[in-house]
Design brief:
Helix content: 40-55%
CATH topology of the largest domain: Rossmann fold
Protein name: Class I SAM-dependent methyltransferase
Organism: Ureibacillus thermophilus
Shape: globular
GO molecular function, one term: N-methyltransferase activity
Largest sheet: 8 strands, mixed
Distance between the termini: 57 Å
Structural class: alpha/beta
Number of strands: 10
CATH superfamily of the largest domain: Vaccinia Virus protein VP39
Order of helices and strands: HHHHHEHEHEEEHEHEHEEEH
Number of helices: 11
Domain DNA methylase adenine-specific: 77-293
Keywords: Methyltransferase, Transferase
């Protein structure tokens, strides 16, 4: 049995034991199990494991719990997208990563799978901050961070309220899609709706631009229909005012269970007086991630686009 399977099997069995006591859901039992490992109550099931083996094993247990949960916010960004975004980050910040670290904020962290996939890929190069309103999810993120030894600053709060976060180099976020229920908070946003509830995913984009450095990048996973809604024109005008659209990458339809769940990668750069806008917006379709040859050509396309478009000083 591979180490990842051994770790998952151990967590799964312990969580099922705790769940059967009737006091916890399976996800809560996973949290209790992770805490038990960290506190030394349970021996770790393998002597040596990589950060990725540990992350993937915990991810499997959390995915099992999320399938049993009816909460719509209990969803996880797939590893494949995390690795793809990590490659994009390497391209956007190639020079900076060679010299040191970059700061990243995820304002809708969840259990942190997207952030931790990136951190493991760019190990030792990320100063990470995560914000999450769901108490169970952020507690899971905190225990995972300790177990894979990835430092991250965590804030348990509504990310659309003011944050105690210094401006960062990069925002990454799998945008929560839907309506934002707090009209009082939404009043402080340019992208608020006038006579109805505001779109949370629009507000997250605006909030992210508040906490990004000038010239910094934002990588969002967006609904493929982002610019087709009745509030799309307002979003378009807002972005034109505050940011440069760098790229829109359509993800393979096969990654999603239905057309309405399809997503794209959306890359913005906060406007900066010292830089020029891109000569060309990268519009691309991501090939099936199992097609290595097509994926290799896609990566080359991104590299070529980067060399011709990014960080052109005025």
């Amino acid at each position: 049995m591979e180490k990842m399977e051994q770790i998952f099997t151990f967590i799964d069995h312990k969580a099922e034991e705790i769940e059967k006591s009737g006091k916890s859901t399976y996800l809560e039992a996973v949290l209790a199990t992770l805490r038990g490992i960290l506190d030394g109550d349970y021996p770790f099931p393998v002597e040596v494991a990589t950060k990725e083996e540990v992350r993937k094993a915990i991810q499997l247990a959390i995915l099992k719990g999320m399938r049993e949960s009816s909460q719509p916010n209990h969803q996880m960004t797939p590893d494949s997208l995390g690795l793809l975004i990590a490659f994009i980050i390497e391209q956007l910040f190639e020079e900076k990563l060679e010299k040191g670290m970059i700061s990243i904020l995820d304002p809708a962290l969840g259990t942190g799978n997207l952030m931790f996939t990136i951190m493991n890929k760019l190990d030792g190069k990320i100063l990470a901050t995560g914000v999450e309103v769901d108490e169970l999810l952020i507690q899971l993120a905190g225990e995972i961070a300790e177990l894979i030894e990835q430092p991250i600053e965590l804030y348990h709060q509504d990310a659309l309220r003011p944050l105690l976060v210094e401006p960062v180099d990069l925002v990454v976020c799998d945008l929560p899609v839907g309506y934002y229920p707090n009209n009082e908070v939404a009043k402080d946003y340019e992208l608020r709706a006038q006579n109805e509830m505001s779109y949370a995913h629009h507000l997250y984009i605006e909030q992210s631009l508040r906490y990004i450095k000038e010239g910094g990048y934002l990588i969002f996973l967006i609904p493929a229909t982002l610019f087709e809604s009745e509030q799309a024109e307002k979003l378009h005008q807002f972005l034109k005012k505050h940011a440069w659209i760098q790229a829109v990458m359509q993800l393979p339809e096969t990654m999603f269970k239905s057309k309405q769940h399809e997503k794209s990668i959306f890359i913005l750069q906060k406007k900066c007086d010292q830089l020029r806008p891109p000569k060309e917006v990268l519009l691309a379709k991501v090939p099936k991630l199992s097609n290595k040859q097509a994926l290799s050509l896609f990566f080359e396309k991104i590299k070529t686009w980067k060399e011709n478009n990014l960080n052109n000083p005025r």
